[in-house]
Specification:
about 375 residues, alpha+beta, six-stranded antiparallel β-sheet, about 55% helix
């Protein structure tokens, strides 16, 4: 009786090899699915983290600007300014104390009288204090005087440096008499550099706008600072990318947002949030991250997973080969036993045949 034919052994070997190939193909299939899901998951996590961090940056900037407003408000309510001592030594000393305290944020600190003339001013060493300068031509002066409310200006270029102005009217608390204006200027690039990268387009960077869409800082290029986002220069720079245009338009309307786009200088993930002062959108920021930077983090995770999968693949293949070798050895042992048994049967048959032949010979005699 045949236990295993050569054909059966062939079928067995082919089946085991097929199982190995199928299992490894299945392994790679699931690995690809896992990598795809992992990429999506990590990208989504990064996006959510960036949304939260953009909001936190916006709140931090808003908090720092409110501190500046608080400082100006404190000066407005000081005895010297309330008494219309806009150029006295005591006023200058008080300004010096506040200027020293906030010098890491503000650029200039000044007082204008009711005729919009600078009566006291502090500025960095080497810069003109602009003392006795008439600021009547400035929009933010006219707006402060007209509304009698704090004013946050848009961006203005001064000696190739962009600044914004924050002003508060000086009004006597007892008589409601308009006395003048106290204000400060902030260098926008220096200020926003405290909250993120504004110099390198190849890593996550910050973009800041005023409410007219003028860029106050932009890590994509220094040449964009002072440009209107919807102007020809910027639109050529971004190749009129509709996704980024829609995103920025919604930001200037005071809406947070997120988008992924590519205007020809690699794909970007951008999150945005308005900077609120007294619940009003005053300035606006976007945080821009090259998706290649995100995927580089993903690749680090995937390399670890690939090592694990390769180890699993190697282990599975080794086990399959060992099983195949064991089966081949088993088949070989069984085959030898079968050959030996058949040999013994054939020998017994030959002996029986010789015996019968001898018996017949004896009978014939």
């Amino acid at each position: 009786m045949k236990l295993f034919s050569g054909k059966e052994r062939e079928i067995g070997i082919i089946s085991i090899i097929s199982i190995i190939i199928f299992s490894n193909s299945l392994l790679f299939y699931f690995q690809n699915i896992m990598e795809h899901d992992l990429k999506d998951s990590i990208f989504e996590q990064q996006k959510q983290r960036q949304i939260e961090s953009t909001k936190e940056i916006s709140q931090h900037i808003g908090s720092d600007l409110r501190l500046v407003i608080g400082m100006l408000d404190g000066l407005v309510n000081s005895k010297y300014l309330q008494d219309d001592q806009l150029s006295s030594n005591k006023t200058k000393k008080l300004l010096e104390e506040k200027y020293t305290q906030f010098s890491n944020v503000i650029d200039r600190l000044f007082v204008l009288n009711k005729d919009n003339i600078v009566t006291a001013s502090l500025s960095p060493p080497g810069y003109d204090t602009l003392l006795n300068t008439d600021f009547s031509f400035q929009d933010w002066v006219a707006k402060t005087k007209k509304t009698l409310q704090p004013v946050f200006s848009g961006g203005f270029e001064r000696v190739s440096l962009y600044s914004v102005y924050i002003t508060i009217p000086i009004i006597n608390r007892d008589t409601n008499k308009y006395i003048g204006i106290i204000g400060t200027s902030i260098l926008t690039e220096k200020f926003f550099a405290n909250y993120g990268n504004i110099n390198d387009i190849n890593r996550q960077f910050l973009v800041a706008y005023d409410n007219n869409g003028i860029m106050l800082a932009n890590g994509a290029s220094e040449t964009l600072v002072g440009q209107n986002f919807f102007g020809d220069y910027t639109q050529k720079f971004i190749h009129h990318n509709q996704i980024l245009n829609d995103l920025t338009r919604s930001l200037l309307a005071g809406k947070p947002g997120v988008a992924v786009y590519d205007y020809g200088n690699s794909e970007r993930l951008t999150t945005q949030y308005p900077i609120l002062i007294n619940d009003m959108p005053t300035y606006f920021i976007q945080v821009v991250t090259p998706t290649s930077q995100i995927y580089s983090m993903i690749n680090n995770v995937l390399s670890v997973q690939q090592v694990k999968m390769f180890s699993l693949f190697a282990a599975a293949s080794t086990i399959a080969i060992v099983v195949l070798l064991i089966l081949l050895r088993k088949w070989n042992i069984i085959l030898r036993r079968e050959v030996k048994r058949r040999t013994q049967l054939e020998e017994s048959y030959d002996e029986m045949k010789r015996y019968l032949e001898d018996v017949l010979k004896e009978i014939k005699k």
